[in-house]
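Human: We require from you a standard protein entry with sequence in single-letter code and fold as tokens, and nothing else.

Assistant:
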Amino acid sequence: RQTDKLGLSFVWLVFLIGFGSDTFAYFVGKALGKHKLVPGLSPNKTVEGALGGMIGAVLLTAGYGYVLFLNGTFADLSKIGWLALLGGLGSIVSIIGDLVASAIKRQTGIKDFGNLLPGHGGIIDRFDSNIFTAPFVYYIMILFIQ
């Protein structure tokens, strides 16, 4: 039962890092963004947005770690620091995943991977950052945090 609980926690962690980082990056980038991150690949991404995404992911994963401690998934509070670090590093991986997807789209001459979600592209467009984040989080959790 504890293994199932831990496994499900890993799955939620992937989405928390990927979507949390994207969301914080978007809002911080819109509010403060001045310096383009990689203008040739993704002209709307800014350095300020990327840093905001990293900080947001750190805060979200630290909070999530505290919730996991409170519900008994983690036995001690020391895991929270590790999760916060994972949030920051996972945010970087998430941004890389998003940029790789942008590079593939540019190389193939398409705007979106699909049109299922009007204004947002397809399912892959929503999950592109998680494609890289999922294996990263999995292996870090297995090797260092579990």
